[in-house]
Design a protein that fits this description.
It comes from Bradyrhizobium ontarionense. InterPro entries: ACMSD (IPR032465), Amidohydro-rel (IPR006680), Metal_Hydrolase (IPR032466). This protein is of the alpha/beta class. The protein is built from 11 helices and 8 strands. It has an 8-stranded parallel sheet with strand order 1-2-3-4-5-6-7-8. Helix 3 runs parallel beside helix 4 (about 150-160) and helix 4 runs parallel beside helix 5 (about 185-195).
């Protein structure tokens, strides 16, 4: 798990857009300068109050080393906290043209105190610009929002959206309610107005609910797999809840949740839609049409079937314009773009996945 990063035999020649890089706070107090005195005192006195009993730990077994590679540890601070190491270990050797930040460190998405959640989200967004994007022009930020408090989330989206250094709106894929629920719709309306995609990424807290949906996992293998089940449930909720019918311009990116399951989910939903469509008269299209029109997927961790042609057939169904390269730096299952696909692609397909699809979706230039 913690073997050294694979050394590049030669510099990556194709410029890539990496859609999943995790920045970390070098010290626990790194957000303090970005909080108003009232919330700075609150943070120092009470800390955060996330949707689980033990706010200082991740759910078993991901609490161990936070899933980071030991060879990504800088001399001071946790993995992901050193910009120079990010440049030397990832941005430069793999020729990253743009890297999208996924700031998951208690930024407000899971905070239970509504006003504090808004303050933490605002601080995290300002911190991303100051500590990362302003210092490294290849990086772009995602807007962290207090997603359980949609009115405050909309305020934060509208504060940041005009700044083109923010390229998407981040939501946790483990919300309190399925994300198709109308309580979240103000966020989608704001995203549509801003022209920004919604990026869903798994986070460590489940709100006290078993991550599998059928009890607590026993092994890390199970915990890592349930990212898929989580994304399937959210994709179905978006579609069947009518989100894409209400917001036809909304674009959703499923990050770190795989994609090989997409055709099977669509086939199953289409079959049931044909029988139960009177229950959902708000849907004007078959579920598979919404899925293929409104959802994008990132590549890490990519499924690896025994016969690579099976993965090609799945991408043919999803669309070669729907996949986005992601590395998950600095986590243990980091994907180097030189080794992350084990089947041949045409030059056009390769350029789409590693660069062009993300350039178009996030309007990067």
């Amino acid at each position: 798990m913690n073997a050294p990063f694979l050394e590049q035999q030669a510099r990556q020649t194709l410029a890539v857009v990496d859609c999943d890089i995790h920045p970390a706070h070098r010290t626990p107090g790194e957000l303090l300068p970005y909080l108003e005195p009232r919330w700075r005192e609150h943070y120092q006195t009470y800390g955060v109050h996330v949707r689980q009993a033990l706010s200082s730990t991740l759910m078993y077994p991901r609490m161990m080393a936070a899933g980071m590679r030991t060879d990504a540890l800088p001399s001071a601070g946790p993995a992901g906290s050193d910009l120079d190491m990010l440049r030397k270990q990832h941005l430069d050797p793999v020729n990253v043209e743009f890297g999208l930040l996924m700031a998951l460190s208690k930024g407000g998405m899971e905070e239970r105190n509504p006003e504090f959640a808004a303050a933490m989200s605002r601080a995290t967004n300002d911190w991303q610009i100051d500590h990362w994007v302003r210092q490294e022009p290849r990086l772009r930020a995602g807007i962290v929002v207090p997603q359980e408090f949609p009115e405050a989330a909309v305020t934060e989206i509208e504060r940041c959206a005009a700044d083109r250094r923010y390229v998407q709106i981040m939501l946790s894929s483990r919300p309190s309610d399925p994300l198709g629920h109308p309580r979240y719709w103000p966020i989608y309306a704001a995203a549509e107005r801003a022209g920004l995609p919604i990026g869903l990424h798994p986070v460590g807290y489940n709100g006290g609910h078993p991550s599998t949906g059928s009890g607590w996992p026993t092994y890390y293998l199970q915990e890592h797999y349930v990212f898929v089940a989580c994304m399937e449930a959210l994709a179905a909720s978006f579609i069947v809840g009518g989100v894409f019918e209400r917001f036809p311009g909304l674009k959703v990116v499923l990050v770190e949740g795989g994609f090989a399951w997409a055709p099977a989910l669509a086939w199953r939903m289409d079959k049931h839609f044909d029988k139960f469509r009177k229950e959902v008269p708000h849907l004007k299209q078959r579920p598979s049409e919404y899925l293929r029109r409104h959802i994008w997927w990132t590549t890490q961790p990519i499924e690896e079937p025994e016969h690579a042609r099976h993965l090609v057939e799945i991408i043919d169904w999803i669309g070669w314009d729907r996949l986005l390269y992601s590395s998950d730096y600095p986590h243990w299952d980091y994907d180097n773009p030189s080794f992350s696909f084990k089947f041949p692609m045409t030059e056009t397909q390769r350029r789409k996945i590693f660069r062009d699809n993300a350039m178009a979706l996030y309007r990067l230039s």
